[in-house]
Amino acid sequence: MYEKHIMICGATGCLSSGSNQIAEALTEELESRGIRDKYRLVMGGCPGFCEVGPIIVIYPDEVFYCRLKTKDMAELVEQHLIGGEIVERLLYKGPDVDAPARFYDTIPFYSKQKFNVLRNSGVIDPESIDEYIMRGGYRALRRALQMDSQAICDEVKDAGLRGRGGAGFPTGIKWGFTNKAPGPKKYIVCNADEGDPGAFMDRSILEGDPHAIIEGMLIAGKACGADEGYIYCRAEYPLAIKRLRDAIKQAEDYGLLGSNILDSGFNFKMNIKEGAGAFVCGEETALLASIEGKRGMPRPRPPFPAQVGVFGKPTTINNVETFANVPLIVKEGGAEEFKKVGTEGSKGTKVFALAGKVRNTGLVEVPMGITIEEIIFDVGGGIQGGREFKAVQAGGPSGGCIPQDLINLPIDYDSLTQAGAIMGSGGLVVMDDRTCMVDLANYFLSFTQKESCGKCTPCREGTKRMLEILDRITEGEGKPEDLDTLDSLAHSIKDSALCGLGQTCPNPVLTTIRYFRHEYEEHINEGYCRSGICKPLFQYLIDQENCTGCRACVRVCPVEAIKGEKKEPHEIIQDLCTRCGSCIEKCRQDCIMITRVGSEADVGN
Amino acid sequence: MSSEAEVAAVNQDIDLSQVDSIIEPYLGRKEMVIPILQKVQEHFGYLPRPAMEHVSRRMRIPLSRLYGVTTFYAQFKLKPRGRNIIRVCKGTACHIQGSPKISERIEEILDVESGDTTEDLRFTLEEVACIGCCALAPVIMINDDPHGRLTPDKVKDILESYE
Fold this sequence. Notes:
Chain A is α/β, with parallel strands linked by helices.
């Protein structure tokens, strides 16, 4: 029996900020005192608050320590584990709390979150099936195995679960199609090819609670009459793949996978396929081709995978988060519980990866219908450095930008679609006044252009032409008619591309033109990028009034383009400046200004 | 030595018996070609031409189709790579926090473009869509070490710590 459980976040965010070293230091500290056996140390799933990593949560006390360093471990052991007193110094502190905060109840980041899908993440040992079972795991499966297939489909449909991978198709209806498709052999596929840049929700679920996915797929198998499953996971997620393999092995040992599961006569075999780095494989027909060992190119639908899927057999494909929701719905009384959260058209919660220029970056799970303002300012703690909020990009390269004016927009499938964005897989990237919207559109389109598989002409050629125009605009060569050309190309691609990638990839361009047309016009007509991103369209000037001559900028300038005596205002030699931005990062007085090309410095005297 | 000559020289030492033992469990299962190529690459660090030809013969898959698959997926590399792999995160969060400036600085210092390897095989510079630690943007990974919250002026010292 352990005195306390110590959960160390072992997800990528915290690992990058050094949680491995923290774990080593803590183990060493405990061993040197001979008390290692009293505590259970788990390199667990993600509590979500990446910004303040590395994180340790101590149970049963529910104390959340953050921004830890290896040298803090001695104090933590001495004062908390042995002395029983919380180490205030290592608690969460921030501009949004008055006093150091302990955990869920007092840290604002967690205040508006609701944990359904992430219920076990960071709480259980993801490598232990027993802990998953102790938290109620595999009970929904037991119930499902006693139910009729169609009854499961109906229950999931009535609960209002919609696909969490992007388009939001009702999951129960999708399952019903596969269930009704003829033939003895059917498949369940889990799409874990999370390729959206800036999105890491699925990985956190896979790494933090792998059994939830397996249970969800098993229930889907029973509902669809399928006896084999594939999890198609990005090769870039080695830890997720390892956790899944271990979890499958454990489930097999417990008789939860294999033949005659729980004496029900139901059989299910689970396979893992590693992706090989192609964004388009997130599209379902491309993913199927990839499982079959081919180039991952989409094909026209119909026939839909529910009729002709992997190896030509009826197949249900759902996203990771969708499967993770399933056990919650199918468990006794779960559907009613599930329906209570969310809006009329979008039930339940959604996991988002909150990133960009927001203060609290991390993984958050919120009820559907929460407003953008609540996510960014209450959960996210506002904009870094107190700058001005400009827009949020929802749904990655397939999604769109939502501007400051729409800050009260509730986040659900239908409101986002109306605003020109999509729910997508759940990336939310926050932008401030130093983000150039033309550059952002260019960024997303260059991504989708590179990832376009080349099969259909609108996507292959159309995105190329759009990108050429955007490149020109960011280089200061824009023409007045460019916006109309972009708009018409974008609509043609949306209407005629073969698959979801092509049909949605103009969204970032369309929404930025819709909400930030003035920025495009400024680039094209005035040759000015106000955000200081598009290099030929701005210059840096040093504010002669406020420059203290500290030489910080002089030291970092790689091309020696800043001159001036110590303690005298400095000046930038425009002909030498490469606009690399090193100086603006370093200036403590905030006196390096972004100005129109050709503006003169106000020398002051 | 030009890089093509290097490739040719390296290709001569390809031990195909290793490829055989990788293929063995999958013989006759053409749908397993991607996992096979992943394992071959894991072994050699890239996909040498002789190994590709061998996979093609043993699996009875035309070489053209095999190259069709390998060139489709970003993971597969047809050229030897450097001792240290630099992966610059091109995720959205990193982009708006300034990753283009980081790439530029690396390209300047190493005199390579993204996707290429330095002459001395010390570094290969690659781009990845997202490493998934957006809180630390902008981020690069060198081998398995993430370096986060970068500014262009930090790049030089970091690169110098890899031999």
